[in-house]
Amino acid sequence: MRTEGDESPGWDTIQRSYRARMERSRRLADGKVVAADDAVKLLESVLEPGDRLCIEGNNQKHADFLAASLARVSSDQVHGLHIVQSNLALPAHLDVFERGIADRLDFCYSGPQGLRLGRLVAEGRVRVGAIHTYLELYSRYFSDLTPRVSLIAADAADAAGNLYTGENTEDTPAIVEATAFKSGILIAQVNRIVDEVPRVDVPGDWVSYVVEAPKPYYIEPIFTRDPAAITEVQILMAMMVIRGIYQKYGVTRLNHGIGFDTAAIELILPTYAAELGLRGEICQYMSVNPCPTLIPAIESGFVEGIHCAGSELGMERYVANRADVFFIGRDGTMRSNRIFCQLAGHYADLFIGSTLQIDLEGNSSTATLNRITGFGGAPNFGSESRGRRHGSKSWLQAGEEANRGRHMPRGRKLVVQIVETFREGLEPTFVERLDAWELQQSFDLPLPPVMAYGDDITHIVTEEGIANLLLCDDLSEREQAIRGIAGYTPVGLARDRAVVDRLREKGAIAYPEDLGVDKRLANRDLLAARSIKDLVHWSGGLYQPPTRFRNW
Fold first, then answer.
1. Which of 356, 359, 367, 393 would bridge with 250, disulfide CB 3.0–4.6 Å?
2. How many Å apart are CA 548 and CA 218, to the nearest integer?
């Protein structure tokens, strides 16, 4: 028990730290509003050496102005920071390590900064705690990686600090909740300060300071796929997915990756799948960003509901006018949330996405030599949901295939990898050994950076056919099933033809003719939209693509 005169730390250390930081910085603010010119001074006032700090930035929006301001603070005053953020996308995110302001990092995805991050790690300027999944890092915000200071981005704020996040709420709730309720400092970069926000996404009393940035926060249309770039090989794979997986299992709730392979699937739903009579039978509920290539499927009545992790530039008006499909606030704009979208995808019937390498057990990775990229949300989407207890036709049928002969009935989530046998540069997708093993040694990681483990994968789709790993009895059958659809790669050429023929007879390998897929139909005429302009037409003019995608 603490008594009067007792100088022990007590039980309110972090609350007293919060009050001290606020007292130091209050002179820079007019209420909660701090001028953009004082952003660097503000950060120098609230930060202390060794602080754990989160900079909001994900696939869409970034707190780019505050990130750049952080990179300009005095490294004599602020140093040794531990950065805990999901996405390293901007040069400023690594400038803080170059300048000695930060030296520790826990993250999820580095994308275009992967090469530079690899160099900084090799030089000893960055100590990587772990490469997390999104859900994994967010969960650690509420255990041992709680930020002391967080820098977030919002569309608008009022003088009381109430924040409006618009269509791109994304990661904001997780960061805010963990920081504000553990006596952390929360600083919001906003595009504009208004008298009254359209919708209160973050209450003002959770926010420490608001800074109106000189320009709107950085955002990229990274989920827009131009149908003009979709190939006939991708259309053939899409036809096999619809016949061999979606129709076979009756998949109604799913998560799509964001590559051209899945865009091809979306664009043949109104044509190929409709001709098969599958409207209302497959693809009704999705957890995915509002990808423009979904517009024809929505307008054709295939997709009934979509929950989004974030938005997509140009889709705002279309989404707002499809309130029966998307989650729309009273203000008329979409409410996204990355955690809820990840959870919806985790407990869906199916995940389908692409990768760069697959080994003979079905382990897959997007990690390549000398580059630390991470995987974002794919490992959670692309993993078996063992906590699931509710049934569906798809889940139960996949469970029957997976649990043959076992007494206790179980369901099974379908996890599908869709890849061409050779990727860019004629590099084979199928390999005997993942680059991830070498990457583990190079960067002293505790584990090889595997995106999806082989025992989570149920199907692999290539232009050759589908390997149904659920029907393989052991690792040797799994290896031959993978070799059987690996085409002319060295892995494919080493197949045992007799075993492959036997696996084909038991359904563990299916080629287009086994699925009733006519390869002659795999051409661009099957796409419901063949260009961005076609997507605009399908949307009735509501989709407004960014200038870079317009050629008319």
1. 393
2. 16
